[in-house]
Amino acid sequence: MPASPWTPLTGGCPCQYIRYTLTAPPLITHCCHCTYCQRESGSAFVINALFTAESVIHTTNQEPILVTTPSLSGKGQIIARCPKCFVAVWSNYSGGGEAIRFVRAGTLELKVDIPVPDVHIYVGSKVEWVRIPERVETFEEFYDVEMVWGREVDERRWEVLERIRTKKEMGDDGQKGEQN
């Protein structure tokens, strides 16, 4: 069965200073229950739709401020925030580098466009009253990306994984070496 055509989505911060268009479907959508996301969002979880960086297009000339915050991996994450209203619009984690943007689904223009989570992660720290649908995959912590993403052969996902692998194999100077 052919995939349905993607309709670009738009979003941004509440004050409209930072705006974006998503030109391709998400690679996967996470509902993260880690304590860092709980604190960062002020909620019980955060929904992140993962997009290739090149499919997240700025539609205003304004740039978000980049704030480095702690993460469970110990390597931190870089959160892109509006410099006026300080809402987080996306983040980049060390594992995906600049190749993947974790777009905060709540910043999409139309709430009907918020993708349903494919996986719930860090459910070991989810709040007790949150109920996860039975058919959705759950993980106590994070998951093996190649196993989860490999269940459905998707050229876009594999291309992103190859870019991440190559970057890890190459040092900052572009020479083959160890990743910090």
Automatic annotation (TrEMBL):
Give one Pfam hit by family name: GFA
Residue ranges of every copy of the CENP-V/GFA domain listed in the record? 9-144
- Coiled coil segments of this chain: none
> In its keyword annotation, does this UniProt entry include DNA-binding?
no
- Please provide the record's keywords in A-Z order: Lyase, Metal-binding, Zinc
Q: Which GO terms describe its molecular function?
A: carbon-sulfur lyase activity; metal ion binding
Signal sequence span is: none
Q: Which PANTHER family match?
A: CENP-V_GFA DOMAIN-CONTAINING PROTEIN, GFA DOMAIN-CONTAINING PROTEIN
Q: Which family does it belong to?
A: Belongs to the Gfa family.
Q: What is this protein called?
A: Mss4-like protein
Species of the source: Schizothecium vesticola
